[in-house]
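Re: beginner question about structure tokens

> Can someone show what the tokenized structure looks like for a real chain? I only ever see the sequence side.

Sure, here's an example I had lying around. Input first:
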Amino acid sequence: MYAIIENGGKQYKVSEGDVVKVEKLPAEVGAEVSFGVVLLADGDTVKVGEEVKAAKVTGTVQAQDKFKKIIVFKYKSKKNERKKQGHRQPFTAVKIEKISL
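And the corresponding structure tokens:
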């Protein structure tokens, strides 16, 4: 059984026991969070739309951290114009505990 959840404008495919890194959530480590469900699949049956309005995915916050640094380098040739920046996107690691309908 798996579900497609939505968080921060992105969608994630999750199953029970998975640890997913989602957009930063305002929750403490150890807190319980729930997500809205877009699609629910169990074997051959797939439920979407009105069928999954009552469905809920709950999980426990494992960590609040930042991803590996990426380098943003802007450059214009023949103009001696260069700009180097680094960026680390914050995330929340959530362990999926239960998918309920």
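Each token stands for a local structural state, so reading them left to right follows the chain. The two ends are 11 Å apart (CA to CA).
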